[in-house]
Design a protein that fits this description.
This is DUF1501 domain-containing protein. It comes from Fimbriiglobus ruber. The protein is built from 14 helices and 19 strands. It is of the alpha/beta class. The longest helix is centred in the last third of the chain and has 26 residues.
Length: about 450
């Protein structure tokens, strides 16, 4: 069985039945295609794919980060609500955040905080942060993620780098490691998985061809033998139907130095890496490890050509005993503060702030009232998000909650609105976008009536 970062799809073909995007993926003539690479690039230009490389880095905090302790503190609330942390002033007058985020406070002009995110499904699941929709029995495995839509609508910015890649670790709570998939758009648009899980030493199974390791990829005879050994069984999900394109993509991606270089942090200046901090590869129980330098990897992947990069970071389900919420916050808030600000600083230093959007969020918020274990429980009624880049209007707070941080009292924002904003930042006009699912029903990335968050654009 061949596993590799991206997956195949079906469209109108060229002279040997291969689709236009599949040829672009393998670099034209690498496997004996009928068009040269320059011809393919010209064909891509004629198809309307823009040359501008816009991108999104979607940072998911598994478990439900405590909005009331991070971005929406209530210092005047009763002690059983306000918690242990104090607010600090930021670079933007009138905006205060938790004292454990001093770096974000110093760069607040480059961030926007949404304090009124509503509509969470209430499940411990990355699905809604990857797709903009709650997981239901009807759409489980059916609805394409943001990255899948972008892959379909834009294709790769570079033939040797997948448009949709993920640094989401496979977690003990499987839904916390869900990076989205291709849904009805097809497996071609599912994410390239660049990391694995605890059981395989974090190595991605997407980087191994059966019988052929990356060290042997220069031996094309061995590689093609590996392809010949693939079991091509008929698969009702469509995975096997697209396997040929999958193989073609695998060859170009795994033999290209561009993706490999993006993952090689030894090419970064030591002082740059030092700003991000030091990785902790130990998995946090059933969550993800504290790999702070993956924030740098995400930026490098975007620079290499990725359009959507997703990642998960540690574990934020903290409602156990002994004040776990505040104990863990003291450990993880500073790590997040350092990693996110280093990422955004790099984006600005490289002139990417108009093109690369960053979002940091989790599946829901936390109860304003502290529980008997001196922690906070699940609270889907309200959560927050932190955003940066993408040419957005930053240095502001959007929305308000009531004095106890229980519900939105001003400008509630929904997940689809955030996704519409991200598509807008990517330069995708959603008005003409319509794709048909397997049943012939028209579908849209977000419903036509949903607009971007007006305050950001």
């Amino acid at each position: 069985m061949l596993t590799i970062f991206g997956k195949s799809h079906s469209r109108g073909g060229f002279c040997d039945g291969t689709s236009r995007r599949d040829f672009l993926t393998v670099g034209g003539t690498l496997l004996g295609g009928c068009l040269s690479l320059p011809s393919l690039l010209a064909a891509e230009a004629q198809s309307g794919i823009k040359s501008s490389h816009k991108a999104v880095i979607n940072i998911y905090l598994p478990g439900g980060p405590p909005h009331i302790d991070m971005w929406d503190l209530k210092p005047d609330a009763p002690v059983e609500v306000r918690g242990e942390f104090k607010p600090i002033k930021t670079k933007v007058p009138g905006i205060e955040i938790c004292e454990l985020f001093p770096r974000i406070a110093a760069m607040m002009d480059k961030f926007a905080i949404i304090r009124s995110l509503v509509g969470s499904s209430g499940d411990h699941d990355a699905y809604q942060c990857m797709t903009g929709r709650p997981r239901t029995p009807a759409n489980n495995g059916y609805w394409p993620s943001l990255g899948a839509w972008v892959s379909k609508l834009r294709g790769p910015a570079d033939p040797s780098v997948p448009a949709h890649v993920t640094l989401m670790y496979r977690t003990g709570e499987q839904r916390w490691g869900y990076p989205g998939d291709g849904g009805f758009l097809g497996q071609a648009h599912a994410p390239f998985r660049l990391v694995g899980g605890k059981d395989n030493g974090m190595k991605s199974d997407s980087l191994v061809l059966q019988g052929v390791t990356p060290d042997r990829l220069s031996d094309r005879v061995s590689l093609m033998k590996g392809f010949d050994d693939i079991d091509r069984k008929i698969d009702a999900t469509g995975v096997m139907n697209g396997m040929d394109a999958f193989n073609r993509q695998a060859l170009d991606i795994l033999t290209s130095s561009r993706l490999k270089d993006a993952l090689d942090l030894s090419k970064e200046k030591p002082e740059t890496l030092a700003r991000y901090g030091v990785d902790d590869p130990a998995f946090e129980r059933d969550g993800a490890p504290r790999m702070v330098r993956n924030f740098c990897v995400a930026r490098r992947l975007v620079e290499a050509g990725a359009r959507v990069v997703t990642m998960n970071f540690t574990r934020w389900d903290w409602h156990g005993g002994d004040g776990m919420n505040f104990v863990q916050a003291r450990k993880d808030f500073p790590l997040l503060d350092r990693a996110v600000t280093s990422l955004v600083e790099d984006i600005y230093d490289r002139g990417l702030d108009k093109d690369v959007s960053v979002i940091v969020w989790g599946e829901f918020g936390r109860t304003p009232r502290i529980n008997k274990n001196a922690s906070r429980d699940h609270w889907p009624q309200l959560s927050c998000a932190l955003m940066a880049g993408g040419g957005m209007k930053t240095g502001q707070v959007i929305g308000e909650s009531n004095r106890l941080g229980e519900y939105a009292t001003k400008r509630p924002v929904t997940h689809p609105e955030i996704f519409a904003t991200l598509y807008r930042n990517l330069g995708i006009d959603l008005n003409p976008v319509r794709e048909f699912d397997a049943n012939g029903r028209p579908q849209y990335p977000v419903e036509p009536e949903v607009l971007p968050v007006r305050e950001l654009v």
